[in-house]
Each structure stands twice: as structure tokens, then as C-alpha cells.
């Protein structure tokens, strides 16, 4: 494997896994719409992704002095402590004894550790998948969760907040770090396969989420409060304006 030639690896990782990404998004977004209205489901879901980020960041820390991909370890980007803050909010002081990885999550974390042990350059696929996704859609998810669960003052959403640098700065730093690795074509192909595997393992976690009838009641309430009522109010205001202008 060669290092050193500057290429737009991030672009290739995105375009060459686009179909798999879109397929995964459809599944995740459908479940997220329901999970986001149920605090019990949401807290269990973020617990699973806490374990994923924990495994990834343990491996990034272990290789932070590597001569080639030390640059992937970006302290301001790390999410583990932020997830712990959210889990403390949802589960209380004893949160660590109340959360555990689901079977699919456990399989995923074991795989990440195996990658870190056997071929750590493949960790690039997970940095590209999880951190960039969090920075791209994190604010939308934060807003949705805040409204649907009635959260106040940013509590319970620390995982989606970047406090030392802006998300755009961190995004650029990470992308520059990945592109600067300059991996050869053989490794690019391996990274593509690893990224697709990451989507598949993420899908397996999402498929494990069991939805209860009460969860769907929550989404009806969410749509009513945050979609239907604003639309009705907008329509009433529009009608009032029409009446006003018809008289003047």
C-alpha cells in the first residue's frame, strides 16, 4: 500500500457507495421518525451508537501516533464523552450499569476492534461514515429530538453539539486528513467494501429496534403539534389576509 499522493478520497468513498448509502438512509429515516418520539426507544438507540463510537475512538486513540494516519485522531471531533453526557441525562447517575450493546451492536464493535488490530487504515471508512454523517445531519436530528421529546437547554443532545470548533471546520479538517492519506487504488477498493459493510452493520442495529403501538401514538402527536397545527394556523392567517385585501 502506498501513501502520500493527494486524492479526493472522500468524494470517491461517497460516490462509490451512494446506492448503499441511500438504501440505508431509507431504513434509518423511517425508524428514526418513530424512535424520535419515544424517549425510551431513543435512549436505547443512542446507547447502541455510543458503543460504536466508543470502539472507534478507542482504536483511533491507540493509533494516534501512527506515522501515516495519526491525523485521523481529532480530539475536538470525538463523541464518546458527549454520548455519555446524554446517557447520564436519560438514564441518571447509574447509566453505565443500565446500558449494554444489542447483539448487532456487539458484533459491530468487535469488528471495529478487529479492524484496528489487523488493518487499522480501514478505520478511515468508519470515520468517513459516522463523523461526516453526524456533522451533516446532526443539527436536523437535534432539532427534531428537542421538539419531539420536549428537551430544554440542549440537554440530551450533546452528541450533536460541537463546542470547541464549528462542525464546518471539523468537517474540513477530517476530509483534508482523509484525502491527505493518498492511498493507492487497491486500498481504495478495500475502503469502499468496508464502508458498505459499515452500512450493512448499521442497518442490522436499526432492524433490531422493536416498535410498540405506543411509539406510533407518539409520532401522531408529533405530526399534529409540529406539522398539522402550524399548517392550519398558516391557512387561517392566509384566509385573514385574503379577506382583508378583498375589503381594501
Report on this structure.
The chain has 248 residues and is mainly alpha-helical. 73% of the residues lie in helices and 0% in strands. The protein is built from 10 helices and no strands. Helix 3 (39-62) packs antiparallel against helix 4 (80-91). The longest helix is centred in the last third of the chain and has 35 residues, at 213-247. It is globular and about 50 Å long. Mean pLDDT is 85; it is low at 228-238.
Topology overview:
Elements: H1 9-15, H2 18-35, H3 39-62, H4 80-91, H5 95-98, H6 103-118, H7 123-149, H8 167-179, H9 185-208, H10 213-247
Keywords for this entry:
mainly alpha, globular
Radius of gyration, CA atoms, in whole angstroms: 21 Å
* Number of helical regions: 10
Q: Give me the count of strands.
A: 0
Mean of residue pLDDT values: 85
Structural class, judged by helices and strands?
mainly alpha
Beta-strand percent range:
under 5%
